[in-house]
Design the sequence.
């Protein structure tokens, strides 16, 4: 260690020029990272560069016509399409409702199952179970449950004395509500587990000290629990926001047509897949992908900035 | 090039043309050209075929096995199937072409041929099919397989739509039972029958297989409704627009009537399988809670006949003014332009070998296999004449009547089957139609929704250059 230090020092003395960037270790380093770098390049970087390029062309999945440069035509088409704005607003509505709702429920459930009770592991498992089922399967099952004559409405009929039994997936007024409920049900367990781990990291001694100071339950929660799980909570908020913007499986599978009824659950992801893959209009689909990336990037950056500022205040 | 050599060449060409005409049926081509049928299979061939996994995937595999064991073994051809899910079938074909992994043959639902032919993915089999073989088929099959004057595909079976009904329920409300396609219920009469059935205690009497979901079913099943009213899904004179036909007063009227049935609670939109027509919600047959009428294709005939027996009756779709219409066309087989889907790129399999299977699968035994499995209408005249259900007076003779009255011009003024439009824009129109029907069921304003659909269709035709 000291020898090496001495050697490098003497080297620096001998040659004042900066150390060469490529030494014998560099090659090994590149070799070790090569598989990952190659895969990332092939499956992440290249497709995105292609998408960026295609978004300025008339590229189609099948066409006897040659690919031609069309400038900003695709972007103009997307921004002039009322369906795109409807999709974007659906995304925003979904996120604005789901992010706080899901985080709140996750925290609520985490606190609930963090108690030292007999058999609490059973409840943890039950709340976590929906996560183990893929969203596509969840969607198919909920189609049956949300059928107007299905289980959910049988329950609704009892608790509302038959006053409120909507046609969940066919009525534009309630379809998004149904999608939100299913989404929260299906994924709240994931956030719950993260927050549960965070809760168990808060030292018991802090609660003891708080109790000695005469803090009630609410004060303990406000002044010990929340600050103790601040970072995981912010992580959960960020990841839920990004995941909520990717809303696709449920709204593709559950309504009578993807994003239906009447575009009330259409999202940007649906718009993207429908345009680029189903209709084979690769150029415009790529433009939507680029726009989508920019939107998610901006949201993530804004969120990061807000979190940072809070950190500085503390 | 001197003048004399030009004229000599013209003379040579003329002689060649004369010789060609003399050989009439046998097309003249260079030996070994893989893109022309020359009657010679160039060596042992291994072929692949992309097939959809539909309602009866067994039949298609059985047919391939029979080919490999029989004519395939004799001719030195082995055929292997690559099954693909029906719901994403065209996307899978398009993606395979884009990535250079296309099979040598594929099967497809009738009208999806046109975008593939337009893009050069499908390869013409015009040089392979003898006049004798062509004459065997129903006109609708040749029409379905032809794009820009070239024959691309052949099918073993045809299709048709109709209304299957519980005869006892119709008799209960005193409904007239139409005798044939020229005797169909009018739209008003049909609306009244549905209301009477509802009043007689048969709730949501009309089953429309809504659970089939997005895709081909909706335009196949319900475009005949607007065509019967005098509308259509594309202008068949210009092929470049849907304006005035899909959003004209005729189509708007038919869809408004349909929306009325939905609003009056006459349509079963909640069924998740065929049981609503067979046994109803209580799970028991003949209890009166079954849907009285089922708006569906021929493929339900085996199941319905077995379940209802003598109480089952088949009547034509309602007449909205221009005669009762039905969809037509079905799955058919075509050759591809090799793995890359690019014509004449040198990677195509020998067309004689490829056609050997298409010829086999449209032969009498295979037609019989598919007709039995799917309850479909046979695609050749001989097979129809030999099928008890389809011959004159048979339980499914109506489908044949419809196909014999199939429309070959664009006027669409009498009853009969309407071909799905032979345009590469069909897939786009189909998806748009499927979406707009879902919106109409959800209560959208019909006129403005159809205007919106027309705008999208016209823009796409212009963007893609489908009509050029």
Sequence:
């Amino acid at each position: 260690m000291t020898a090496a230090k001495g050697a490098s020092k003497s080297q620096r003395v001998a040659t004042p020029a900066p150390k060469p960037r490529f030494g014998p270790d560099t090659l090994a380093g590149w070799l070790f990272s090569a598989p990952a770098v190659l895969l990332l390049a092939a499956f992440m970087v290249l497709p995105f560069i292609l998408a960026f390029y295609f978004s300025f062309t008339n590229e189609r999945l099948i066409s006897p016509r040659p690919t031609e440069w069309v400038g900003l035509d695709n972007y103009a088409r997307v921004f002039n399409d009322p369906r795109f704005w409807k999709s974007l607003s659906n995304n925003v509505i979904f996120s604005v409702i789901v992010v706080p709702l899901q985080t709140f429920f996750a925290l609520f459930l985490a606190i609930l199952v963090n108690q030292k009770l007999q058999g609490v592991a059973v409840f943890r498992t039950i709340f976590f179970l929906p996560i183990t089922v893929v969203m596509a399967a969840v969607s198919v099952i909920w189609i049956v449950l949300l059928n107007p004559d299905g289980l959910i409405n049988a329950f609704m009929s009892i608790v509302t004395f038959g006053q409120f039994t909507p046609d969940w997936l066919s009525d534009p007024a309630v379809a998004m509500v149904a999608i939100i409920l299913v989404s929260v049900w299906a994924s709240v367990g994931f956030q719950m587990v993260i927050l549960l781990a965070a809760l168990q990291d808060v030292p018991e001694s802090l609660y003891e000290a708080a109790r000695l100071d005469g803090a009630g339950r609410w004060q303990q929660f406000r002044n010990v629990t929340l600050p103790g799980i601040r970072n995981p909570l912010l992580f959960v908020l960020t990841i839920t926001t990004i995941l909520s913007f990717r809303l696709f499986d449920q709204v593709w599978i559950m309504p009578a047509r993807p994003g239906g009824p009447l575009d009330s659950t259409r999202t940007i992801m649906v718009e993207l897949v429908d345009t680029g893959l189903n209709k084979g209009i690769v150029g415009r689909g790529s433009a939507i992908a680029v726009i989508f990336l920019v939107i998610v990037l901006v949201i993530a950056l804004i969120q990061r900035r807000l979190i940072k500022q809070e950190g500085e205040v503390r | 090039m001197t003048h004399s050599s030009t004229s000599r060449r013209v003379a040579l060409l003329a002689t060649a043309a004369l010789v060609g005409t003399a050989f009439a049926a046998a097309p003249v081509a260079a030996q070994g050209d893989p893109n022309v049928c020359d009657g010679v299979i160039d060596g042992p061939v291994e072929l692949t075929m992309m097939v959809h996994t539909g309602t009866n995937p067994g039949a298609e595999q059985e047919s391939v096995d029979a080919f490999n064991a029989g004519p395939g073994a004799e001719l030195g051809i082995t055929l292997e199937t690559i099954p693909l899910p029906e719901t994403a079938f065209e996307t899978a074909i398009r993606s395979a072409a884009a990535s250079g992994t296309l099979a040598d043959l594929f099967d497809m639902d009738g009208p999806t041929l046109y975008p593939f032919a337009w893009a050069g993915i499908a390869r013409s089999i015009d040089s392979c099919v003898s006049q004798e073989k062509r004459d065997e088929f129903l006109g609708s099959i040749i029409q379905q397989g032809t794009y820009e004057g070239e024959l691309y595909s052949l099918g073993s079976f045809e299709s048709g739509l109709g209304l299957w009904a519980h005869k006892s329920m119709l008799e209960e409300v005193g409904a007239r039972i139409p005798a044939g396609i020229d005797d169909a219920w009018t739209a008003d009469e049909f609306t009244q029958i549905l209301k009477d059935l509802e009043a007689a205690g048969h709730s949501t009497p009309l089953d429309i297989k809504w659970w089939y979901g997005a895709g081909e079913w909706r335009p196949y099943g319900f475009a005949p409704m607007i065509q019967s009213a005098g509308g259509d899904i594309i202008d068949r004179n210009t092929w470049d627009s849907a304006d005035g036909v899909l959003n004209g007063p005729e189509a708007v009227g038919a869809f408004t009537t349909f929306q009325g049935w939905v609003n009056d609670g006459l349509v079963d939109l909640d069924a998740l399988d065929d049981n609503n027509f067979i046994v109803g919600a209580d799970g028991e047959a003949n209890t009166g809670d079954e849907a009285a009428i089922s708006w569906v294709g021929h493929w339900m005939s085996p199941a319905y006949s077995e379940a209802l027996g003598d109480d089952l009756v088949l009547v034509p779709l309602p007449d909205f003014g221009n005669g009762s219409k039905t969809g037509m066309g079905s799955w058919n087989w075509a050759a591809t332009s090799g793995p890359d889907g690019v014509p004449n790129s040198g990677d195509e399999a020998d067309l004689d070998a490829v056609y050997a299977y298409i010829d086999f699968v449209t032969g009498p035994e295979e037609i019989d296999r598919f007709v039995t499995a799917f309850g479909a209408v046979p695609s050749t005249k001989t097979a129809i004449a030999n099928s008890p259900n389809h011959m004159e007076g048979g339980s499914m003779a109506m489908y044949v009547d419809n196909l014999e009255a199939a429309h070959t011009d664009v006027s669409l003024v009498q009853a009969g089957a309407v071909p799905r439009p032979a345009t590469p824009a069909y897939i786009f129109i189909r998806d748009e139609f499927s979406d707009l029907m879902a919106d109409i069921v959800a209560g959208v304003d019909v006129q403005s929704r159809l205007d919106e659909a027309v705008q999208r269709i016209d823009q796409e035709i212009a963007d893609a250059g489908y009509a050029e």
Confidence is low (pLDDT under 50) at residues 1-12 of chain A. The CA atoms of residues 234 and 308 of chain A lie 11 Å apart. Chain A has 14 helices and no strands.
